[in-house]
Amino acid sequence: MTIRLTRVDEAACERIIANAMVGVATELRLADASELIRMIRCDQAANIADLVNSSAELFFKEGTLRYALSAGCRVEWDSTPLVEFDMEFRHAAVSVFFRLTIGERRAGVKIVDAWFDERDLDEAEKSRQLATAVAAARIGAQ
What we know:
By secondary structure, the protein is of the alpha+beta class. The protein contains 5 helices and 5 strands; from the N terminus they run βααααββββα. A 5-stranded antiparallel β-sheet has the order 1-5-4-3-2.
């Protein structure tokens, strides 16, 4: 049985995921923006997945964080480009689907959906389980 995330705890869970994604976003930002945009516009999902996996493997255990096969970009004349990746974090009894947005100097996270295997969890417990799962999924965690 999976339990969906409620609006009440969405902000807390977004902070947990955003803090965990700092290193991954920094690694992805090292890629050439025009190359990322080309991969997105040409629908090169396998290349994007490889890039995301190589960035994530520095920080998370294998298979824990992955590209969810959808990406987008916003390119305007008067601003720096923004690249967006749909991502999936899955570890222990927690699955979170979110959109990672990367700009020149900033990155952001917006949770799309979250599932917890246990029933009747309150908002604090959902946040605690997510924080525990993220910590356990990090490289070097036991």
